[in-house]
What we know:
- By secondary structure, this protein is α/β, with parallel strands linked by helices.
- Helix content is 28%, strand content 23%.
- It is built from twelve helices and 18 strands.
- Strands 2, 3, 5, 6, 8 and 10 form a six-stranded antiparallel β-sheet that branches. Strands 12-11-13-14-15 form a five-stranded parallel β-sheet, with helices on both faces. It has a four-stranded antiparallel β-sheet with strand order 1-9-4-7, with no helix packed on it.
- Helix 8 links the parallel strand 14 and strand 15.
- Helix 6 runs parallel beside helix 7 (259-276) and helix 9 packs across helix 12.
- It is globular.
Amino acid sequence: MSKTIDIKKVDSNFINQENKEDLYYIDPKVNDSVKIYGLYWFEKDKRYHRLSKELDEILPKLEGSVDVLAGNSTGGMVAFYSNTNILKIKVKLSFKFHMGHMPYTGQAGFDLYLGNTYQDMKFYRTSNFDFNKSEYEFTYFNHQDLFKENKLFVLNFPLYATVEEVLIGINPISDILPCSNLFKDDSKIVFYGTSITQGGCASRPGMSYTQILSRMLGIECLNYGFSGNGKGHIEIAEALSTIKNVKLFVLDYEANVTFERLKATLDNFVKCIRTKYPIVPIIIISKIPMYLEFHDDNYVINEKKIRSYQRNYVRKSKDENLFYIDGAKVLGKTNIFVNPSFSEGLPTTVLEAGVMECAVVATPVGGTTEIISSDEIGYTCGLKPEEIQEQIEKLIINKEEQIKLGKNIKQKVVDQFS
């Protein structure tokens, strides 16, 4: 019979730093000393949903579960300046998924970035909690002294959970100032798509691709990825077209629809946006390579037709600000894949990297050990940066080892996990 051991008894790094002192708690819904970004309707509705309350009666009538997913807070951020020596959050979730293939830190956690400006921030820590509960508390740090100067704090909201309440606890004597200048202006990029857009299966919220792009570009990115439900609903197009100051729309929903559904919705979706934004660039992206492209010839033939349709749609539109990007070419060829994680189910990312013949470096948690069962399949390591760096450097200087591990893991994935 298997035995369960509390990881905190084995590794002290998992022990939450409990704080005994009284803290000053900030509720972003009623306190303007912090500022919410990434949730466009927050100021009006005072809730951490991605779509307006005005759609609450419409969304349940749409095919699928857009109404449920619209409550997920992916893309949301709370930003402020402070010199606090203590930071704690109290979180209440009204809904969360329970997915075995995605770390719970990504599904329902908040991760913290610290720095002087948005684009020079560095990741600090992700909240750790009991995933079986709908409420949790987490202390990011509890230092002896206040920071010498105010720092920029950014907390990224969960990717696959609905946040009812988040309270931010700081030292009562510390400074707290809203960050009203996180971005240089009010420009926005709107992303509409699938689970990949929503953030599946990122290990923490700041690693969803829209958040990565936001930090890289220094622009607010609004995330309207609906896991399995990016189906080109015209009601969603109408809602997105009402957002102010959009400089770019990205449509990345092919993976959630059949070819027939794509042909029936794409033109209407684009035309709806064009009624409010006649010249703003719109990018249509076909889906990235999926594992079936390596195993199913009929799938490959059909996918070529779908990509060709999207390419030709853009060409024939005579719209100079409508662009097509082939998703098959978005991800460059890489030889090494790194998956540092506190928790995993059976990590889809590792399986996909294996199919692409990448040498894999990963932490030995959850189902990762089922895939990387020996050093002949891949390398495992701890979460310390120097441990991860050591394994990556071993592979960089040994091309033959890279190739060998890539071939071995691909063979194992094909044989045992296809």
